[in-house]
Design goal:
With about 120 residues, the chain is mostly helical. Among the domains are: about 40 residues; about 40 residues. About 75% of the residues lie in helices and about 0% in strands. It contains five helices and no strands. The longest helix has about 35 residues.
């Protein structure tokens, strides 16, 4: 059995283009332009729905839970809040580094790494 990485490497190493007398270029030119959807519109809709949901939950009666949580958070020692914030930053930073490394092409194909 050939795994995905070996198959991907073999496909990349093959001849990249077969001459088709311009057929591919004609087909690509005849396609309609791709519609670009606005990403900010999606973000605004999600943020709006989150705010509406939070408002509804507050009006239903969950507001006292939020108030009590803020009061409890205000009673925490400052050093514990700093440790918590630093730990959260380390976790988020570690995930960012892991995802950035996974996006590099060298990591996908370990045979191309040079040491």
């Amino acid at each position: 059995m050939i795994n995905d990485e070996t198959l991907g490497r073999q496909l990349r190493e093959t001849v990249p283009y077969i001459d088709d007398d311009g057929f591919t270029a004609r087909v690509m030119a005849s396609l309609p332009a791709a519609r670009r959807e606005s990403r900010w519109l999606r973000a605004v809709i999600l943020l709006g729905l989150a705010l509406i949901g939070s408002g509804v939950a507050y009006l239903i009666g969950a507001g006292h839970v939020v108030r009590e949580g803020i009061i409890e958070l205000a009673n925490f020692p400052i050093w514990l809040l700093l440790v918590f914030a630093f730990g959260c930053g380390l976790v988020v930073g570690a995930f960012a580094v892991i995802f950035a490394i996974r996006k590099t092409p060298e990591v996908r194909d370990l045979t191309r790494l040079e040491f």
